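Q: Given only this backbone (367 positions), what sequence would you predict?
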């Protein structure tokens, strides 16, 4: 038996009747911004009780809790990869990047859902804010990437084992009642998340509660992606900007106005850098004794404590100093990861063709 849909309800197909640029199932189309301070062009809003916002980050009316990005800092990629790369492997890497890179319309879809979800969640938590984070905003997102959301309901930490699970369970009940959300699933982990799918855009979302370190890392990786997009940080060549500094997500100052240009002395091609990355982890890095630390811009001895001892892969989280690779806890999976580095290096050195390890042609044709 079916029932007539009320006027205030929406169906998945409502969006098809909307003109481009007009309000859709989520209402008004918001501006899409991301995580760096903007110029002082608009007066700052007063802080909302229970959720302060970083000075210098002004939230336009449409954006709610979206972080702000200076788009002009992101270098554009020329249409022809030959402009940047001469060798075949480098050209393939650039072509694959261009084919898979997240587009503005992908970001706008995620932002529309974030803005609508924030309205819905504020019925439960009036002073909360939902932030987009992760690959969606840090510069590493692809067209098929899911979206990470961080619900900030108060200053300070939330007990992830009890409070966060309870909050997410309340939100899951809320999502079950929303016509544009499907498959809400609570995942109990060290940082519990609520997984769900937006029917309109087809985007998968992961929502956490007060996991502020994820927002901090969005800032961190975005900054690193701006400064050098070819990921030289895999060779630990980044400046140690976090050493002896504790960063408060609510107190992010604007950077200096006049920064002299940085000229890299590195002359390696993208292909050479990628081969060097594979070689380093296949043959040179000591997995048994070392941990990877971007914070210290170096490979450091493993700490002799429970969290690090007897772990197969150790990658230090630069802010809370935990092991971000703790999920690799089975030797068979660790051996598979190391074998992939070794075999990929062998194939690339032999054929100098990215298709030997990745479906480049098929991926580009799909796009």
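A: Predicted residues:
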């Amino acid at each position: 038996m079916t029932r007539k849909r009320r006027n205030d309800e929406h169906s998945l197909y409502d969006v098809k009747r909307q003109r481009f640029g007009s309000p859709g199932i989520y209402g008004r189309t918001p501006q899409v911004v991301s995580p760096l301070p903007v110029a002082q062009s608009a007066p700052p809003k007063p802080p909302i009780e229970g959720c302060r916002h970083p000075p210098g980050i002004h939230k336009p009316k449409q954006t709610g809790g979206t972080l702000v990005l200076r788009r002009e800092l992101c270098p554009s990629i020329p249409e022809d990869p030959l402009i940047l790369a001469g060798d075949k492997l480098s050209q393939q890497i650039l072509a694959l990047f261009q084919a898979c890179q997240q587009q503005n319309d992908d970001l706008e879809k995620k932002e529309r859902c974030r803005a609508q979800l924030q309205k819905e969640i504020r019925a439960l938590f009036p002073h909360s804010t939902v932030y987009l984070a992760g690959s969606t905003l840090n510069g590493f997102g692809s067209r098929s990437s899911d979206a990470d959301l961080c619900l900030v309901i108060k200053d300070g930490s939330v007990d992830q084992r009890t409070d966060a699970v309870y909050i997410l369970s309340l939100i899951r009940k809320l999502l079950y009642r929303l016509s544009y959300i499907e498959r809400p699933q609570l995942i109990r982990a060290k940082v519990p998340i609520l997984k769900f799918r937006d029917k309109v855009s087809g985007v998968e979302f992961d929502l956490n509660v007060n996991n502020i370190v994820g927002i901090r890392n969005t800032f961190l990786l975005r900054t690193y992606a701006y400064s050098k997009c070819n990921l030289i940080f895999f060779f630990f060549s980044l400046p140690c900007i976090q050493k002896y500094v504790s960063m408060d997500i609510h107190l992010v100052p604007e950077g200096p106005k006049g920064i002299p240009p940085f000229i890299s002395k590195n002359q390696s091609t993208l292909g050479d850098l990628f081969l060097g990355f594979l070689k380093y982890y296949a043959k040179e890095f000591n997995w048994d004794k070392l941990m990877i630390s971007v914070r210290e811009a170096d490979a450091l001895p493993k700490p002799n404590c429970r969290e690090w001892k007897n772990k197969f892969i150790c990658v230090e989280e630069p802010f809370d100093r935990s092991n971000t690779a703790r999920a690799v806890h089975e030797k068979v999976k660790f051996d598979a990861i190391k074998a992939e580095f070794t075999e990929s290096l062998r194939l690339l050195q032999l054929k100098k063709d990215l298709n030997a390890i990745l479906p480049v042609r098929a991926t580009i044709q799909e796009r």
